[in-house]
Amino acid sequence: MAFQERVFSGVQPTGSLHLGNYLGAITKFVALQDNYDCVYCVVDLHAITVWQDPAELPRATREVTAAFVACGIDPRKHIIFNQSQVAEHAELAWIFSCVARIGWLNRMTQFKEKAGKDRENASVGLYSYPTLMAADILVYRATHVPVGEDQKQHLELSRDIAQKFNNDFGGSIHSHGYGDAFFPLPEPLIQGPATRVMSLRDGTKKMSKSDPSDYSRINLTDDADTIAQKIRKAKTDPEPLPSEEAGLAQRPEADNLVGIFAALAGIGKTDVLRQFGGAQFSTFKAALVDLAVAKLGPIGEEMKRLVQDPVAIDAILGEGSARARALAAQTMSAVRDIVGFVRS
Ligand code: AQP
Prior knowledge:
Blueprint: E1 6-11, H1 19-32, E2 37-42, H2 44-47, H3 57-71, E3 79-82, H4 88-99, H5 102-106, H6 109-115, H7 124-138, E4 144-146, H8 152-168, H9 170-175, E5 187-189, H10 224-233, H11 252-265, H12 269-276, H13 281-307, H14 310-339
Helix pairs in contact: 3-13, 4-7, 4-14, 7-8, 10-13, 11-12, 11-13
The chain binds adenosine-5'-tetraphosphate (AQP).
């Protein structure tokens, strides 16, 4: 069955947005708006799978919204909203938690990493996070999902859930006139030279909001001096840059910085090495500082300007939520019939 093409993705309001979120996800969100109907969500229900200070969560939610707009997503053409304003996400997540198997969730590496050794003390929400993520996507029957490499496994689980729902309820889907399949199998869009941006302090670790060292990441709101300082201090090795991409193997920090340059410049790693092969890191880092400041500086400034006006940001979220709710309500109405819930 052919589904109407639609893009969905989300970002958690859990701290400062960084270069990894920008290159791995938000730049893709911006590019896709020309060719698709897009739904972009500030996933506050996901955020509370680990403790969030209620006094801080609204600020973080508005900051992610500001980042979406400052990076170039048009809230008039596409939907920007926060997840908790559309209750259908949680409703479908419950149904999906009855479709997904415990064995599937047991294989999720992100839960193992985030729960760490203290698994018994992790929230149930952190464990069932991927079923909510499947609901986020499928409540809009979205067909394409731009994410960073770290979300690949969760996306595969979303496809498995969609497939199992279609199989389990196949007869009912058919008898209610929805053809052979109600949910599309969403395609992950994980492309480009920076699908997994690594920490500036350790090229084997993902750049992450929760890393205790602020020097491990470039935040979208960092000023030019801070960006320059963080890049100058970024860990490297003593060799000059290679001329070929193969020379980056076994050099995770060099590979990461070249990937960041390539993604910011909109070129491939090969092109970067054509320009900088044989150069010392001091030369390359100086060029990377200029590029990063030129690209991120205006975004950070615009974000700071937008968050000054929380009423305007809340209006974007309110309007986006109303549009999202209308789409989600259609899906849930059909899902209730398919599952066999009585309406009276
Ligand atoms: N380092 C990264 N490189 C490329 N893409 C990344 N993403 C996150 N980190 C990188 C992508 O950004 C989108 C939004 O991520 P999120 O905020 O919803 O969740 P996350 O992946 O848990 O982000 P963090 O920074 O790693 O947070 P913590 O520290 O809380 O775990 C997603 O598409 C993600 O792939």
